[in-house]
Amino acid sequence: MILEKLSNAFGVSSVEDDVRKIIVEAVKDSADSWRVDTMGNLFVTRNHRIETGETPLKVMIAAHMDEVGFMISEVKSNGLLKFKAVGGFDRRILLGKTVVVGQNRMPGVISLKPVHLLKRGERDQVGSIDSMSIDIGATGDSNGKVKAGDFATFATQFAYMGNRPDETSPHEGLVKGKAFDDRAGCAVLIELLKGDYPVDIVGVFTVQEEIGLRGARVAAYAVDPDVAFVLECTAADDLPGFDDTTDEGFPRLGDGPAITVMDRSFIADRRLVDHLIATAEAESLPYQFKRPGIGGTDAGAVHKTREGVASVVVSVPARYIHAPAAVLDLTDFWNTVKLLTAALKKLPLKES
Predict the structure, then answer these.
(1) Catalytic residues
(2) pLDDT tens digit sequence for 226-235
(3) Is it the case that residue 125 has pLDDT exceeding 60?
(4) What is the pLDDT of residues 66-83, one digit of tens each?
(5) 169: pLDDT confidence band, cut at 50, 70 and 90?
(6) Residues 237 and 250 sit within 8 Å (Cβ to Cβ)
(7) Where along the chain do the CATH 3.40.630.10 domains lie?
(8) Residue among 263, 268, 254, 274 at smallest CA distance from 310
(9) Average pLDDT for residues 234-249, to the nearest whole number?
(10) pLDDT value at position 352?
(11) Please, what is the average pLDDT of the chain?
(12) Where does 2-67+178-345 sit in CATH, by number?
């Protein structure tokens, strides 16, 4: 599955090269053309193949390649590496986690003073990132294998949870891995680029979303689309302790793709939201909504481009995003592909 390759790839914001190479290999046979811009955004064009007699819409579909991670800020004389966060983190999840560092993919562990050596007042506090280090087992200055400015990310490998899907149910089951935000969206876009539509598709695999929607801003200006769909992976809240009979805990794994009505970066175009809902109901596909007002996506930059772009976000829900390992339900992934495929085929014609 392409999601496995994408999840395992090293691609912290601004160093998405390995991810981009995997995507190019996956889409080159479906693309009418592809190119990479100065920032590293990958543009993949698939022109309309269903004739309607009308001028086709130009539809931008975006998914970001980058993942949260770390930048090495200092190599200490004892070999420990000081680092800064690239993207948003909950510091509580970092201690003792394995990482890979730099171009040589050096294995390391995020370290902090052990609980046995903490003073009483320190035991209930979470250490700051500045108090943490990455230990790569060096006894000196890392022997030049790592330098300030190198990047690091979690060493997590993709895996199936429980039984691996078999030939009778290849699209079912739970998987775990890093960087599902937003390699899940990238994998959905790869699948969409295989389809035939009455619209011109420009799939954009963007860079640097996690540090300010930077790639999407210039990409949307270049594409100048009529409509934009942004594909994401959003936080599922169906965690232990939630009561399923209450309104707490949404989106949930297994309840289908999550449609965004509003987040911190934009308010979705209501026409596109209604179109997605109508399509899901016509196709008997499950759907749900992302909790309003939470997070931000590339749509926050895309919808403000030029004179404005009608935009909407559709996400695959996953537990524990921005952490060493997230958990995703493959039925949600494939239902997202089905929903977007049908929605693209049913888009209204371009107004004259």
Answers:
(1) 209
(2) 999 999 999 9
(3) yes
(4) 999 999 999 998 889 999
(5) low
(6) yes
(7) 2-67+178-345
(8) 268
(9) 69
(10) 43
(11) 91
(12) 3.40.630.10
* Cβ within 8 Å of residue 317, ≥6 positions away: 233, 234, 235, 236, 251, 252, 253, 255, 257, 258, 288, 328, 329, 332
- Cα-based distances in Å from 170 to 1, 10, 18, 226, 248: 10, 26, 26, 35, 31
User: For 86-122, what is each residue's pLDDT tens digit?
Assistant: 999 888 889 899 999 999 999 999 987 666 556 666 6
Residue 243 has what pLDDT?
55
At residue 281, φ and ψ (nearest 5 deg) are -70, -35
The CATH class that applies to domain 69-154 reads: mainly beta
**HSE-up of residue 229 (Cα within 13 Å, Cβ side):** 32
pLDDT per residue as tens digits for the range 177-191 = 999 999 999 999 999
Structure tokens at 96: 């003792």
CATH 2.40.30.40, the chain: domain bounds: 69-154
In angstroms, rounded to a whole number, what is the distance separating the alpha carbons of residues 29 and 196?
A: 14
**Residue 277 amino acid letter:** I
Interhelix angle for 17-27 vs 180-192, to 10°?
A: 20
Residue 244 has pLDDT above 70, yes or no: no
